[in-house]
Amino acid sequence: MSMKSLFDVRGKIAVVSGGSSGIGAMMARGLLENGAKVYITARKAERLEAMAKELSKLGDCVAIQGDMSRVEGIEALVAEISKHESKIDILINNAGANWSAPLESFPEKGWDKVMDINIKSIFFATQKFLPLLKAAGNVDDPARVINIASINGIRNSGMPTYAYTASKSGVINLTEHLATDLASSGINVNAIAPGLFPSDMTKQIVDNDDMTKFAVSQIPRGRMGKPEDIAGTAIFLSSPASSWMTGQTVVLDGGMISTS
Fold first, then answer.
1. Rounded CA gap, 121 and 111, in Å?
2. Which domains does the chain have, with CATH numbers?
3. Which pLDDT value is given to residue 206?
4. Which tens digits make up the pLDDT trace of 143-159?
């Protein structure tokens, strides 16, 4: 292989869950602009269709509504994609949720919602997409699973987001476990642990000038993440450049947790 094509994802077929906004949309955009075909899925149809319309200006983007918190929803998504594709090169498990409440009153429904979307969906999406991933991957050019973790799965965020912390820590360990089991099937499994990016999940911080200033002051690089930061990392993990890398979590936070 020529060194010039190390980061080439042209012609690859990708699925991005939670692709209607935030870093999911950022990664979808990066893949599209670099020649991949991208399926995006999310629960809210109107928002999903609007994002697909915008992204379709850049490449072949298809929206399929789906509920990744339920196995039935994942199976329906796989069945729909299987009508159009015989293989999937890249699966990005990005759909996520958060819930904040004091320890003494943290509700079961909040715990279950976060766990179902943040960790259960990753396992079952990977499981249900296995035939399509195996059809795409081989020893020299593996299929890719990219799980979105968080720096808050590595360190204490200081916020009462207990289920989020537990789920994202689980993503990191599940990534290692899946990577070991799937390596011989021609599938690489890696994760990204983002720091502060503008998204619905960080809206409370990003929309408040004082909170933004404080948050950015904790980041050695002195800024929030940009779309090209997360897109570039996803492209690396999807491309020949990372074909020998599996079971790893790439921390993408401008140096934030290195100071804690």
1. 14
2. 3-255 (3.40.50.720)
3. 67
4. 999 999 999 999 998 88
Nearest to 227 by CA among 55, 2, 29: 29
Contact 220, 259 (CB under 8 A): yes
Q: Can you tell me the distance from the alpha carbon of 189 to that of 52, in angstroms, rounded to the nearest whole number?
A: 26
DSSP assignment of the chain = --GGGTT--TT-EEEEETTTSHHHHHHHHHHHHTT-EEEEEES-HHHHHHHHHHHTTTS-EEEEE--TTSHHHHHHHHHHHHTT-S--SEEEE---------GGG--HHHHHHHHIIIIIHHHHHHHHHHHHHHHH--SSS-EEEEEE--GGGTS--SSS-HHHHHHHHHHHHHHHHHHHHHGGGTEEEEEEEE----SGGGHHHHT-HHHHHHHHHT-TT-S---HHHHHHHHHHHHSGGGTT--S-EEEESTTTGGG-
For residue 9 the two structure tokens come to: 């994802």
Active site residues: 164
CA-to-CA distance for 128 and 149, rounded, in angstroms? 20
User: Which residue stretches of the chain have pLDDT < 50?
Assistant: none
pTM here? 0.95
Cβ neighbours around 240 below 10 Å, total:
18
* Token code pair at residue 193: 């642990």
